[in-house]
Design goal:
The protein is of the alpha+beta class. The chain contains 2 helices and 4 strands; from the N terminus they run αβββαβ.
């Protein structure tokens, strides 16, 4: 059975929540959370993630079986610009793996 738009949004939202909770717990940054959607000026999926030099990152989460890395990287880079982030990164869920740390 293929995904509908509604089921894809639900699956994506669930994955974003899982990633945000994992990053918040792992990095110890309480402000990390899912980002509010911004339409054409999307800033990524997870807010307040920073690298080891305290630079802001734009996180794009993907829970899709079919890989499309070039398009996803372009999307993450555009979101980094919109967010004023140092860089955009892609967080891709591995098929068949539920642990976001893997």
């Amino acid at each position: 059975m293929s995904r509908t738009r509604a089921s894809a949004k639900k699956i994506g939202s669930s994955f974003e929540r899982l990633v945000a909770d994992h990053l918040r717990a792992g990095l110890g940054i309480r402000e990390i959370d899912r980002m509010t959607k911004a339409g054409a000026l999307d800033k990524g999926d997870i807010a307040n993630v920073r690298d080891s030099h305290d630079r802001l990152l734009a996180d794009e989460c993907k829970n899709i079986t079919k890989m499309s890395l070039p398009a996803w990287i372009n999307e993450a880079q555009a979101e980094a610009i919109n967010y004023g982030a140092h860089v955009g990164i892609v967080v891709h869920k591995r098929h068949g793996v539920t642990d976001p740390g893997k």
